[in-house]
Structure formats: C-alpha cells, structure tokens
Design brief:
The complex is a heterodimer of chains A (412) and B (149). Chain A is of the alpha/beta class and 412 residues long. In chain A, 51% of the residues are buried. Chain B is α+β, with helices and mostly antiparallel strands. In chain B, strand 2 and strand 3 form a beta hairpin. In chain B, helix 2 crosses helix 3 and helix 4 runs antiparallel to helix 6. The chains are: A alpha/beta (412), B alpha+beta (149). The interface between A and B is medium-sized, with 19 and 22 residues. The complex binds pyridoxal-5'-phosphate (PLP). The site of pyridoxal-5'-phosphate (PLP) has 14 residues of chain A, from helix 4.
Chain lengths: 412, 149
C-alpha cells in the first residue's frame, strides 16, 4: 500500500492493528465504521493482557503490593486522560462506562439539582439519542423543557437561532462536538462563549470528536465534556466524564455504594470527594488501563497529524463520491470530520450495506441513533462510511467500486 | 458473490421497483403497522377479511428492497386465501429463510421462493419477515405497531 502521506506512514500504522489483516467474504477487510467503534491497536490489547497478567487487583483498598500496582495503573490512566483533554486537575476526570452513562449522570445529578419546572435545556437537531433521551427523562421528572437548535441543509448549526433560544430560563446547553451521522464539527468555542455570557453551563458530547479533533477543554472552557473509550481505539465499557471541579463538587452522587463514601453508619453517610464520589463500586480498572494505552497511542501519532490526514481522506472521499451520479451526500458542512453519509437513488441503505459487506467493506446503515436528524433530511436511513487514520485512499477506491456494484445490481 | 446474486434476483428487484398492491385499502377492516427500529423500515398492511377469507390486501411504507419485495409478494400470496392457509404459507416461508436445510413445499410459496437467498444473510432475515409479523398483528387485531425487535 503506497500511502505514506507527509510524515504519516499509514502502511506502518496499519501493522499495529491486527484486526485489519482479516479477510471478510474473501476480500481484504475495509473497515469504514469507525464512528460506531474504533479498532484496537496491539498496544491496547497488550495493555489489557498485561494488566490481567501482572497487576490485577482491586484499587484503593489493599495494603498489598498488587493493590498498589492496580491503583497506580488506574490513577495513572486518569492522569493520561487529564493531560489528553488538557483539564486542570485529575479530580475532574470521572471514569464511567461511556458517553451514554456520562450524560445520564449529569442529567440525574446536576440536572435534578439545578433544573426545575419550566426551565429549558438546549440541544441541537443533530444529537445522538443519548443526548436527547436523558434530557427527556429529566424533563418528565422535573417539568423542564427541551429546546432544539435547528440546522441548515448542509447540516450546520444555525448559530443565530441558537443565540435566540438562549434565555433566562436556559439552565444547560448540551451539544455534540462532532456529529456521528453527518460529521459536522460544531463551533464549540462560540457555543460555550454565548452560553457563558448568560451564565449557562455547557456539556459537549465528545463521543466522536475525541478521536478526530484535538480537544482542549481548558481553552474551549466547556463545563462538561464526555466521551467513550471504544471510539478512541480503547476498550468498550470505559468512558469519561470531564467536569469542572466546582460543578462536580456541588453535584450529588449518582450511585451509592463502596468507594464513593467517606464513612457510613446506618444513620448517616459522608460522601467521598471527587472523583471517587461518582465512582461507586469496583470500576472497570482494566478498561481504564486500556484507555490509557489508547491515549498514549494516538498522542504519540499526534492528534494534529491524525486530523490532518483524515481531512485529506475526507477531501478525496468527498470528491470520489461526488462523481457518482445517483448518490447524494447528507452532511456537507464546511467544517466536518471524516464522515461520508449518503443515500442512493434506487438502492436503500440497507441493501447498499449488504452489497458492500460482500465486498469486505464495513459501513453502517440506518438512522445512526439520530432519528430526528433523519427526519430533518427526510430520509429514513443513510449509508455512513466513517474514516479513521488507518484508512487509505485505496480503501475509498474500494468503496467506490462497491457502490458501482450496487448500481449494477440495482439497474438490472 | 453468487450469494449476492441469489439474494438480489431479478424478480425480487422487480417487486421492489413495482410493488404489487402498493396502496391504501380504503375498505380495509384489519390494519397494522410494522417497524424495524434497527433500519427504520416501516410498513402499513391493510386487509379485508370476509368470513375466513382474506379477500383483499394492500400495503404502504418505506424500506429496503427485501422488505418491500417481501411485502409485495405477501400480498400476492395471501390474497384470496383462508386465514389457515395464510398461516401455512407463513410457516413455509419462515422455515425457508431461517432453516436453509429444511424441506419446504415451494409450490405453495409461489414468488416467495425468490426470497430463499435471504437465508444466507442472517442480518437481513428481519427485513424479509417484517411484513409477515405485521400480517399476524393485523389478523390478531393488535392496534400497536409491531416491531422486529
Ligand atoms: C455523538 C455520539 N454521542 C453519543 C454516543 C453514544 O456513545 P456510547 O454508546 O459509547 O455511550 C455516540 C456513539 O454511538 C455518538 O456518536
């Protein structure tokens, strides 16, 4: 594969991902479903094996050596996340299961405490269900109201509409940084600035952006930033809630149990300080270690280099797909990540997905957990090819070839 | 590759392009909605049942080629049949796409035989069966939309 691009040696990088060597349906695997989950480099797999082989123990609980090793590994992973996001303090990094749990945590703690009847929560038209439903549940419980920032036909947020929605009743803004279905990268600094001017805190759903955009929570100044480890080439079942310390400290706990307490009697329990207050029970220690390894891996490649290379792939892919007559791209924002979402004139996305799979090409088809967004574009589903730094132009060519096959079959 | 050709047979594609009985049935006395939450396929099935016989049937909706063709073929195959016979056709169809090794009476299935290729694509079986679950719901008089999940 002749894919050295600047300093980015993709052929070499691909060697780090054992799963990419597979053949699917007798064709080399072309994995273009990275927005659903990323593949894992050997370093992450090794970190998991090493943890269970040499360090496994419970954390914060024992005086024995292994317990100390496990604690060091777990807290070491927290520091890596802090550094990767450029947060101010390790205590601002809470380990959770993933984006979904992080948003539910904020809704059920910060939300219940601070949001009441008639109060408003602002989200956008391009949210994943996991940034819609927790707020609807909160609304049912408290009488709070959801306000939705509309988007234009390119899939860009309408900032002036957003500004109009901000009101004295707004208690929280919760918006996706990079859309999973369209690829749109939202102007988060402006979004935060406009909200902060009115004293409104902002949660950013970083499920996608964390893997594709250099993220700096101190510069963006968001109040919460949430992501899932598995989309950042780490293990499943581990994710992060970043929150500003003063907010986290004021929030009530999410779940009760071990680890999150300072002292317990049957009359009264004193809660632990952050981050432990939000980490009830034995956590996914191995997962955090794997996430730490994933962060080391991408940080070593450089998020700027990753983003630049993926932009190159996006530009190439957009041009190649635009050449296909009966294909319409959904999501053409000026500022977007490496996502190519599209529909075809005669073939339903589901059929496209099956035909591509026969060519060894993995894409996602469906509503991408963003049904209101599909309604906005008046489609029931799209085909989504989402690219990562280990993808190549040759793989985009394979996609185009696969789409030709779809056209051929469906014009019979 | 041959699996693909077997899945997307010309007759299937033809039903997809020109589905039969694709309309609203104004004098329907049974009706149900079917929905596949995984891919967003939706159909509405209309039936006119007199005595024990399905005297008319039609459908509307959006979906992939397989779910559309399956619904279209369903309308052809159950129209004019007794409820018991429709059930028998469904059983045969179900066996054909979920148990590729089993014996099936293809004569009773008519065009539906063209969907046998689905059995090689486990992820698509739900598409082929959506219309049939909807038929069950309509006959059972369940008002709520059925889903494949
Ligand atoms: C933008 C966005 N938000 C939230 C989620 C939910 O992430 P998870 O399922 O890992 O909790 C996803 C992933 O599907 C996503 O892409």
């Amino acid at each position: 594969m002749s894919t050295a691009s600047g300093s980015f040696d993709v052929a070499r990088i691909r060697e780090d991902f054992p799963i990419l060597k597979q053949r699917i349906n007798d064709k080399p695997l072309v994995y273009l479903d990275n927005a659903a989950t990323g593949q894992k480099p050997q370093a992450v797999i090794d970190a998991l094996v090493n943890y269970y082989t040499c360090e496994n123990s419970n954390v914060h609980r024992g005086v024995h050596t292994l317990s100390q090793r496990a604690t060091d590994a777990y807290e070491g992973a927290r520091s890596k996340v802090r550094q990767f996001l450029n947060a101010a303090d390790d205590r601002e990094i809470i380990f959770v299961r993933g984006t979904t749990e992080a948003i539910n945590l904020v809704a059920q703690t910060y939300g219940r405490e601070n949001i009441g009847p008639g109060d408003e929560i602002i989200i956008s038209a391009m949210e994943h269900h996991s940034n819609i439903v927790p707020w609807q549940i909160l609304g049912q419980e408290t009488g709070a109201i959801l306000k939705v920032v509309p988007i234009n036909d390119d899939g860009e947020l309408l900032l002036d509409e957003y500004e109009k929605l901000l009101s004295p009743r707004t208690k929280l803004v919760s918006i996706v940084h990079q859309s999973n279905a369209l690829g749109t990268i939202n102007p988060v600094e402006q979004i935060v600035e406009l909200a902060h001017r009115r004293g409104v805190p902002v949660l950013l759903d970083g499920a996608q952006s964390v893997a594709h955009v250099p993220v700096d929570v101190s510069r963006v100044d968001c109040d919460f930033y949430v992501f899932s480890g598995h989309k950042l080439y780490g293990p499943t079942g581990i994710g992060v809630l970043y929150g500003k310390a003063e907010l986290l400290e004021a929030m009530p706990p999410y779940q009760g149990g071990g680890e999150m307490i300072r002292s317990v009697t049957f009359e009264k329990t004193l809660y632990n300080t952050i981050p432990n207050k939000f980490e009830a029970g034995t956590q996914n220690i191995a997962g955090s270690v794997g996430l730490g390894a994933a962060i080391d891996y991408v940080a070593n490649l450089g998020m700027d280099n990753i983003a630049a290379y993926e932009q190159e792939l996006l530009t190439y892919g957009t041009r190649r797909l635009a050449e296909i007559g009966p294909l319409r791209l959904i999501g053409t924002a000026r500022h977007k990540g490496s996502v190519l979402s599209f529909v075809m004139e005669n073939a339903h996305p589901h059929d496209v997905g099956t035909i591509l799979d026969a060519e060894g090409i993995a894409v996602r088809t469906g509503h991408h957990c963003a049904q209101p967004l599909m309604d906005r574009f008046e489609v029931s589903a799209t085909v989504r090819a989402s690219l990562a730094f280990y993808n190549t132009k040759e793989e985009i060519d394979a996609l185009v070839h696969g789409i030709d096959r779809v056209i051929e079959i469906f014009s019979r | 590759m041959s699996n693909l050709n077997e899945l997307y047979q010309e007759i299937l594609l033809e039903h997809n392009n020109k589905p039969r009985n694709f309309r609203k049935l104004e004098d329907a006395n049974r009706q149900a909605d079917g929905y596949n939450p995984l891919c967003g396929d939706r159909i509405t099935l209309y039936l006119k049942v007199e005595e024990d016989v399905i005297t008319d049937v039609a459908f509307q909706g959006v979906g992939c080629a397989i779910s559309r063709a399956s619904a279209s073929m369903l309308t052809q195959s159950v129209k004019g049949q007794t409820l018991d016979k429709a059930e028998e056709i469904f059983d045969g169809f179900h066996t054909m796409i979920t148990e590729p090794e089993a014996e099936v009476d293809y004569d009773a299935l008519g065009d539906l035989e063209m969907l046998s290729g689905v059995s090689a694509f486990p992820t698509r079986i739900k598409c082929a069966i959506l219309a049939w679950h909807t038929l069950h719901a309509a006959l059972a008089g369940q008002g709520d939309a059925v889903t494949t999940e």
